[in-house]
C-alpha cells in the first residue's frame, strides 16, 4: 500500500511539474540572447547560383491570401524566378501575439507585415526589424507615409509603407431602394433611417457584434469619433495632454455607440466578426459599420449592390473628419537568412508597379505611393473621394499613446464593447480609459 | 541473494535505464520551470537587458492598479471555473460511471461516446459550441423554441453574467469522460463478494452504493479532484479559442491561463512582457503546488488511515 501511495505521489508531482512547465515558454531562448539582433551577415548564406530562395511573409490579412497567391506573388516571381515567396497569414486578432513569440523564438518569416506606429517601433527597438533607409524605392514615399514606420526623429525607417484604410459605413442598396431610404449625413437622419428599417422588419438595421470586441473600438469608436474630436486636432491634443478622454467629444462618441444597441442583430453580444460579415453579405442586414478593407470580400460575396456613406455629423454642413488610417507596411526580419532576396522583394513593394497592383487587386487598401494610382473600383474611388471633402486623421490609440500599460488599444476594445453591451456607461468608459492613460502617460510639457 | 554485500558491482544498468527520462525531463521540464521562476525576479530595462528586481514583479501583480485587478479577477474566475467542474463534472462523471458499472445494454457504446469529446481538439469544441449557441445560426434557440422555451434563450457566451459559467459547462461537457472512466475503473474493481454479502444482509441498491462502493472508491475521488484542480488552473485553450486572449466581455472569462498568455505574449498593440508573464506563471505554479500539497498531506493521509 505504501508503495502505491508513493507511486501516486510521484505521478502527481510529475503531472504538476509537467503542467506548469507547459505554461512556461520552453521554446524561448534565454532573453539575453533573444533580444540581441544577430550581427549583420552572420546568418547570411548567399544562395548558390540557380538555387531558389524561399521568402515567407507574416501577415494578419488572411482575407487577402488568394490575391497574394494568385496575383501579387506570381507578378513578382515572373521577374525574379530565383525567389519564391510564400504568404503565410495569421488571424488578425492573434497576429501580434503570435508574431512576437515567433520573433522571440527565431522562427518568424523573412518579411513581416507591420502594424503602424508604436507596435512596429517597439519591434525595431528590440532589433527584430531591419532598418531600410537605403532600400531602393524608399524615396517613393512621402514623410507622412513613412512617419508611421519610422523612429520618432524620422532618422530610421523600418517598413515599406503599403496602404491606408478609410472608415465608413457600407449599406445594402437593395434594402435602401426597397424602403425608399437616402444615405444619412447627420446623426438625426442616421437614426431615422435605422428606425424605418427596424419598423419594416425585413432587415437587421445595423450589423455588428461585440464578441470579438475590436469591432466596437475600430469600426465603432474610431469610425464615428473623429467628427467629434475634430480629427488630428483632437488626436494631437490628447498626445499633448491638452485633452482627456473624459472630455465631451469622447463621451458623445460612446453615447452614440450605446444608442446602436437597439439596432444590432439579436444576441449581438456573442456575434463574432465573421458572423457579422456573413450576415451582411447574405443580404439580411441593411447597414454595416466598418472600413474600406471589406470592399474586396463584400463585392465577391454580396449578391446585391453595395453603397457607402461617411460617418454622420451632428449638423448638416459641419466639417467632416474621416479616419484615413495608415494601416499596413512590410518590413524585413532582422534575422532573415536571405536579406538580399528580402530586400529585392521590398524594393519591388516600394515600386509604382506594386502600388498599382495592390490598390486595384485589393480595393479598399489605398496605396501610399507618391505616384497617384488610378483606382478602378467604384467603391474604392468613392472612399478616396472623401479625402477631398473631409479632413483625414488616424486612429488615436496607435501613435505614442499605446506605449505603456495598460495598453490603450486593448482598453478601448474592452470598454467600447462594454458600452454597446450596456455594462458600462459612456462616462464610466471614459473614466477607465483616462485613468489607465494617466497611470503611465506624461505628456511632454 | 548469494552474492555477498559489498562485492556487488555498482548497478550501472539502473543509471542507464533512468538516464533518458531524467535527461529529457530535466532539460525540457525542470530547467524551463526553474528558469521561468528565475525570470520572475527580473525586469527588462529600456536597453533590452535584464535587471534583478527582487520581488517587485510580485508586488506589482498584487497591488498595482493595472495588474492587481486583472490578477485577482483571473484568480476569482479560475476558482469559479474549478467549482463548476467539481460540482457538475465530477458528480455527473460518478453518476455515469455508476450507471455503466451496473451493466446493461449498450454499455460499451455509451462508454465510448461519452468519452469521445475528451479526445477532440479544443479548437473543434470551441467552434462547435460557438455555432450551437450562436444567436444567428445556432440550434440552441430552435431547440428551446421547439419545446416552448424560446424566450429563455440568451447569447450566453457574450454576456458578462453568463459567459464564464457557459464556458465552464462546455469544458465539463468535454471532459466528463475522464472522471467517468476513472470512477468506472474503480467501481468494477470492487470485489463481487463484498457486494453479495451486502445484498444478502438486505442492503438496498442505494445503501450498497453509499455504504460499500463509495467508501471504496474514495481514493479515486481524491485523484479526480486533484486532476480537476491541476487541469482547471492550467486551463487556457478553450477560453482562448472561444473568447480570444482578451477574455471578454470586460474580462469576465479571464482566468490564470489567459492572463499569463496576454502578459507574456502580448495582444494587438500591447507587446509581451516576459518577466511579468513569468511572474504570473510562477503564481500559477504556486497555486497548483499548494493545492497538490494540501491533497497529499490532508486527503491522502486520511485515506491511508482508512485503508490500513
TrEMBL record, chain B:
Keywords: Cell membrane, Membrane, Transmembrane, Transmembrane helix, Transport. GO terms for cellular component: plasma membrane. The chain crosses the membrane at residues 12-34, 79-101, 113-132, 163-187, 208-230, 276-298. It comes from the Bacteria. It is found in: Cell membrane. It holds the Pfam family BPD_transp_1. The keyword tRNA-binding does not apply. PANTHER family: ABC TRANSPORTER PERMEASE PROTEIN, INNER MEMBRANE ABC TRANSPORTER PERMEASE PROTEIN YCJO. This is ABC transporter permease.
